[in-house]
Amino acid sequence: MENMLQHSTCQSFGTDCKELIAMIKELHAWPSYATELERIETLQICFPDFNIYHVPRARNQISDFLARTARSFHRELHFIGCSIPV
Q1: Which residue of 26, 59, 60, 72 lies most exposed, with the fewest beta carbons within 10 A?
Q2: What is the torsion angle, in degrees rounded to the nearest 10, for the CA atoms of residue 28, residue 3, residue 65 and residue 12?
Q3: Is 83 part of any domain?
Q4: Contacts of 38 (CB under 8 A, 6+ apart)
Q5: Interaxial angle between packed helices 18-25 and 34-45, expressed in degrees from 0 to 180 and rounded to the nearest 10
Q6: pTM for the full model?
Q7: Can you tell which superkingdom this protein's organism belongs to (predicted)?
């Protein structure tokens, strides 16, 4: 989300993690993640029409593969892809 603010006005995010969506919708129901969720809540304010939606894992295989591959580089990588959700 921080990188999106620097590079794009896109306000819609997709994830295959249903738990993350539940956390964002009920921020105070997850006290063990309070610090992380406070940061997400702060970032949401920067997006006038923030939206997060579920992308089934079967439709997210390429993104998942790229994320797993990027983790193996042991350095920080950023990629911002912005498209209109269908």
Answers
A1: 72
A2: 60
A3: no
A4: 27
A5: 70
A6: 0.61
A7: Eukaryota
